[in-house]
Amino acid sequence: MYEYLSHQPLIKQTCHSHEHHSHEHHSHADAREVDKKILKISLLMTSSMMLVQFVYSLLSNSLALLSDTLHMFSDVFALGLSFLAILAVQKFNNEQKTFGYFRLEILVAFINALTIIISAIFIIYEAIEKFINPSSIDAKTMIIVAILGFLVNAINGFMMFKGANLENINMKSAFLHMMSDLLGSLFVIIGGVLVYFTGIVYIDTILALILSILLLRWAVILLKQSVNILLESSPIEVEKLKQAILISDEIEEIIDLHVTQITNKMYVATMHIKIQKEKIAEFRFLSRKIAKILHDEFEIGHCTIEPVWEEKNEKI
């Protein structure tokens, strides 16, 4: 009904015409269809490779390979959740969910980050155990399986990089899982080669520790992003937004400003603006002017603006 009351994420900054608004919705739907197809293929490939790696990590007695397998399990979990989140956004409707199921994407990213952290802590624990009680490793098996894992992760990562909407935190979390697992497979290959030629089994453990630290770093960044959204922290610098609105001479003050993020490119703003009572007739024009600033400069597609003014020292 109103161009400043969008209930869909914005794909890109455009004018406020109804035609463009429909185009944004269509583009976003197309993007999610592509993401869903990529996730489906990645989920199938990763699940198959995870089972192979798990069996051979036990047979080869490689901690690095086992750590990569555990991370691949978290990949399967992450891809599955990401896929279900997209299905929920596309298929489910509930009038109590006034902004739909878009926030599920953020919740999935939060859970994905936690699974990476748990996996990394477990790997660190196992690495310490291996330092205390070292054991022999079948380096040849370790290398072959790691190469297969590397190829699967490389294909999945390439598909996501080329086709997925990585601005979406849900897809970004799935992509980070793939990239960290790709790096993990590379570490295992290098470790396997070094162990094979030197016979020093501690190399495998050291590489597992390095991988764990990298996983923790990525997971903490992702966790911070998702927590900020879940806590409804403003994704936009509030003072900068105020200054952009206060350029209009008709506005005396901005009161009770709130800016929140539902999901990627879906920002919501609410505010009261203090104006002179004689300017109230111009409020409709003024609110549309503010809505255009919010949309064009800050990509805020949904805003609610209310006027207040002073009369006999009271706000009405």
What features would you describe in this structure?
- Helix content is 66%, strand content 11%.
- With 316 residues, the protein is mainly α.
- The protein has 2 domains: 18-230, Alpha-lytic protease prodomain-like, CATH 1.20.1510.10; 238-315, Alpha-Beta Plaits.
- It has a 3-stranded mixed beta sheet. Strands 4-5 form a two-stranded antiparallel ribbon.
- Strand 4 and strand 5 form a beta hairpin.
- Helix 2 runs antiparallel to helix 3 (103-132).
- The longest helix is centred in the first third of the chain and has 43 residues, at 18-60.
- It is elongated, with a radius of gyration of 25 Å.
- The protein starts with 17 loop residues before the first helix and ends with a strand.
- One of its GO terms (cellular component) is plasma membrane.
- The chain crosses the membrane at residues 41-59, 71-89, 101-125, 141-161, 182-200, 206-223.
- It is a multi-pass membrane protein.
